[in-house]
C-alpha cells in the first residue's frame, strides 16, 4: 500500500492512522530541520493531541535550509507528508501513521519561502532540530561565533540570509514592521539551555543588523528551554523494508524505541498546543532534567560509541553487550558522572543510569555507533566536558572520563584496532585526524585544541591521565586499556 491521504482508509490491520480530518488542519508551527527525530518526537506529540480532537490549528509545516533537505521534501510531499512510525520494543513491534505535518516548504538559497511563511502571523511557533553543532557557538566557551562565514553573510545580507537564524530574524523584522507580534522560537536539540542558546544566537544576529529589532525581539519574543529524549535510528534500506513488511510503502519511515520524554519551559509568547495533554512535562526547572539527560544519556552515548568504533562494534546495543564496553559505560557513569548530577522528581541519577542502560541494550533498535559518534567536536564539549570540568574543579575521580577523551582521540586517528579504516565522521575530520595522529607521540597536542578543551588541558591530573590512557591505547590496545580501567 503506497502511503497517501487516499490510501489511509486501506491501512493494514493493527496499524492506526489519523482519526482526524487532515483537510481541516491549519498551520501553527513551522519546523526547521525535519529529520527522523522530529517526526518521532514533536510531530508525534502533536499527532496525539489531534487524535484527541485538540490542536487542529497547530499543524506543522516542514522547512529546511540545506540542499539535502530537498530530497526529504520530495519524499514526504509524494506521500502527503504522512509518516509511518515503527516502535521497536523487545516485547514486539507496533506501527502507526501520523499526520500532524501538512506541507514542506521549497528549499531556497535565500530562504525566501521560509521567511514568507514564518512572517505570517498564523505561525506562532518556529521550532528547530538543526543538531547540537548548528547554533553557531564557539566550542570552547559557548559564545556566539560572530566570525563564522554564515553569520558574516547574514549580517551583511539580512534580506537574503543563508541560515535558519537569519531567516528567523528577517521574518521577525517583517512582523514587527507590519505591526504583528512575534512567534516563539523553540529549540528541540540536545543542548543545555537550548532556549537560552537559540535566543542568544537570534539576538546576536539581529544586533548586527538592527539594534532596535533586537531590543523588540528581546522584549516580546520567547525562547523556551526544553529537554527532548527518544532514541531514533537513521532510516536506511532495512527500515524501508521493515515498513514494507508491515504492508506500507513509505519512502521515509521512522523507527524508534518505546520511550519518549519532553520537558518544556512554559514560555510561549503566541500560545501553544496543550503539550501536557499528550504527556509532556511543563516546568520552570528544565535545566535539572536537561543536565541529567545530557550528562548521562548523551555523554553515555559517547562513552559507548568511541570505544565501539575503535573495536569494530557496529551498534549501541552491541556495545552494551560487549564484555568490556558495557561495564566501562556503567563504571564511568556511576562513579564519575552521577556524583555531579542532581535528581529530578521521581528519578535519581542511579535509577536513570539503569533506565538508559536498558534502553541502549534494546536489540530491536539498530542505532549505529557511527551515527552516535558523528560530530564529536560538538558532542564532547556539549555532553562530556561539562562533567569533566566539574570533576577537575572538585577533585573527584575522572580516570574514566579521561579515557573517554583518549578514546575519542584514538578514534579520530581513523583506524580501528583491527587496522580497518574509519571513514570521516566529523565536519572537521581532517583537522581532528591530523591532530590525533600527532598526539600518538605527543598526547598534549590533542588537549591543545582549546576550541574544545579551553583550559582543561592545563589541569595536571587530567592531562596526566589522558596522556597515560592514550599511550596505553596505542601501545597495549583498546581491550587491554579498558580491562586495566575496569580493574
Automatic annotation (TrEMBL):
Lineage, uppermost ranks: Bacteria, Pseudomonadati, Pseudomonadota, Alphaproteobacteria, Rhodobacterales
Listed InterPro entries: 6-PGluconate_DH-like_C_sf, 6PGD_dom2, Mannitol_DH, Mannitol_DH/Oxidoreductase, Mannitol_DH_C, Mannitol_DH_N, NAD(P)-bd_dom_sf
Annotated Mannitol dehydrogenase N-terminal domain residues: 28-276
Pfam families linked: Mannitol_dh, Mannitol_dh_C
Keywords for this protein: Oxidoreductase
Coiled coil: none
Domain Mannitol dehydrogenase C-terminal: 285-474
Keyword Glycoprotein: no
Any one Gene Ontology molecular-function term assigned to this protein's record: oxidoreductase activity, acting on the CH-OH group of donors, NAD or NADP as acceptor
Protein name: Mannitol 2-dehydrogenase
